[in-house]
Amino acid sequence: MGVLSVARTSFIILVFLGVLTGVIFAVDPSLDLQVASFFHDLAAQPGVRRLDQVIDAVRQVGPLVIVAVIVAAIAALVAKIFWPLRPTLISTRAALFLIVSLALGPGLLVNVVLKEGWARPRPGMVTEFGGDYAFMPWWDPRGACDSNCSFVSGETSSAVWMTAPAMLAPPPWRYVALGAAGVYSIAFASMRMLTGGHFLSDVIFAAIFTGLVIWTVHGFVFRWPATRLEEDALNARLGKLGRNVTRIFVPLAQSRGARPDKQTPPV
């Protein structure tokens, strides 16, 4: 199956799952409460409560993994700006793909637009589990949560974003990397539900929305002829940017470093 066929199939699956999830949880919102009740009871078990420190440690590692990947991408772009002939660990297009997909998916869409604008209370906030707020179905943004709300799961979105670097792995290892990213995502989604942070629909929609953002940015950078970026042309633009920055700031730094009281020797 070619790249375009895989991309088309992936898009159809994501859209189908999104529509199916929306319809199922809209027709029967109590499914969210039932799954949340299962995780609530599971979290109360003594054997599971002993894992609290392990879960906290794993959740601390998640952001560090994201930072490590994105720092490598930023370093590759900076290297191509100021040292365009120096080889980098990842290509310029790959670095751009990683940075833009992270910024638009887990960054803008999930943590800025949805979590701040969709006032759905978290499971631990609703009356069914000892909280003070009324439960709200996924489609109703008129909840009592003020900020950093339940819809959708930010940590699940960040975990699912790890499929973006997995897509860049060499073909023999790509499916292994994607499988590992899938297990990683399911683990974080399960932990968020186990700790009462999200409903099932929150984590499913987080995965679908993030997947669609990754799919779109990948198409823009790699697949679509109208927008596809060529590596050599992109490196040339970055090199030109680096030369312009050097022309502006190097003379300025030299002039600031000069001693005004020192006489200029005669020619």
Keywords:
267 residues; mainly alpha; Vanadium-containing Chloroperoxidase, domain 1; 10 helices; 70% helix
Please give a structural write-up.
With 267 residues, the chain is mainly α. It has a single domain, classed as Vanadium-containing Chloroperoxidase, domain 1, CATH 1.20.144. It has ten helices and no strands. The chain has helices spanning 3-27, 30-43, 46-49, 52-82, 92-117, 154-160, 163-167, 171-194, 200-223, 231-257. The longest helix has 31 residues, at 52-82. The termini are far apart.
Summarize the structure.
The protein is mainly α and 267 residues long. Helix content is 70%, strand content 0%.
SSE order, one letter for each helix or strand:
HHHHHHHHHH
> What is the strand tally?
0
**Mean pLDDT across residues:** 92
Using the 3D structure, state the CATH architecture.
Up-down Bundle
Shape descriptor: elongated
The CATH topology assignment is Vanadium-containing Chloroperoxidase, domain 1
CATH C-level class is Mainly Alpha
Distance between the termini: 73 Å
* Residue share in β-strands: under 5%
Rg computed from alpha carbons, rounded to a whole number of angstroms: 24 Å
The structure class reads: mainly alpha
Biggest sheet: strands, sense, closure? none
Number of helices: 10
- Give the low-pLDDT segments: none
What assembly state would you assign to the polypeptide chains in this entry? single chain
Our count of domains comes out at: 1
The residue fraction in helices comes out at: over 70%
